[in-house]
């Protein structure tokens, strides 16, 4: 493998865009492949259960992509033998396996040979509780010196740059997450960042409290789960649907007498997506039929006085005008006047309509 300065420069220019919300992986793979001198290049991402999350490739035929996605990812010897390898580990079929050893594997005989791959070199670029990802290069001939050459000179500088950009992307993701967590916590909502198969990458402090209180939703094996099998199946189907078409979904799950969790599932912003995979944002709100309404919020939303908001909160809780008057140490006449003012300001004709509007908050 000869090192070409122009190819190295183009590859470094492409990889500098890894910090973009949507990195140009096709350009990154093409320039990296050309720099390495391989026949094809791939970005392959697996989840924590070793399911294929994403395959991006340059130089693969449609048949090769289909074969890998439909079956051969399950017997990928490099993925299997690198699951515990840290980021920065280089893998090379020419040095990891004796020729006879590799040739006895299904992956080699039925996939590599069919698609004219004699050697695969792969660099682990992410390895955590949520995913395992590698950028790989496939050659039609074996070069025993290839892996050593990838770790020296301008090519090695390129891969150091790639890892550095991935670190920067992770830092930007952390900053974006803190902003989102703060915004939702301020309005009383728990939030989680999960993969399409419900593996949790991040969760807010409020979400951690919700998942630790024994009311249905919990974490098991790193995944967000519900104690009820039907609810779990519905949640998983919603996650797959959102990952597929990007349209938000919602569901509600009972969490006790008069209480429920309202769940909103949406596609995460591009800046929160991990390597090569769409992430999902899960918002949780706990609703209780017995929880008092926020008087300050009622006042702000409906542009009413604080006293009127307190009366509205009492009515929405189920109290009569007389009971609200008693609770507020006010006369029934005063409360009736405040109800009349509420009907006028909120453009309602009946007291039941006031309660319905208030309950929407």
Automatic annotation (TrEMBL):
Coiled coil: none annotated. Gene3D superfamilies: Winged helix-like DNA-binding domain superfamily/Winged helix DNA-binding domain. One of its GO terms (biological process) is regulation of DNA-templated transcription. GO terms for molecular function: DNA binding. Residues 301-358 form the HTH luxR-type domain. This is HTH luxR-type domain-containing protein. The lineage of its organism: Bacteria, Pseudomonadati, Pseudomonadota, Betaproteobacteria, Burkholderiales.
